[in-house]
Amino acid sequence: MSSKFQYIDDGLSEEHIKQICRFLDTPYVIGEYQKWHKFAAFKWWHKREMDKNYSL
Questions:
Q1: pTM: predicted TM-score of the whole model, two decimal places
Q2: What angle do CA 49, 51, 55 make, to 5 degrees?
Q3: Backbone conformation region of residue 37, classed left if phi is above 0, alpha if psi is from -120 to 50, else beta
Q4: How much is the pLDDT for 2?
Q5: Nearest residue to 17 (alpha-carbon basis) of 30, 8, 6
């Protein structure tokens, strides 16, 4: 693959993430939201890259 993955931060503050967890009634764990958000962004990027390769 010729392109590189670049993560774009969504700009949510820690306080905002805490409020989201409180609203969803899920426990807040420091860094857990960021870890899964980056992982999901990578998976979507990787799928798009693979689709480009297979569409040729």
A1: 0.69
A2: 125
A3: alpha
A4: 58
A5: 30
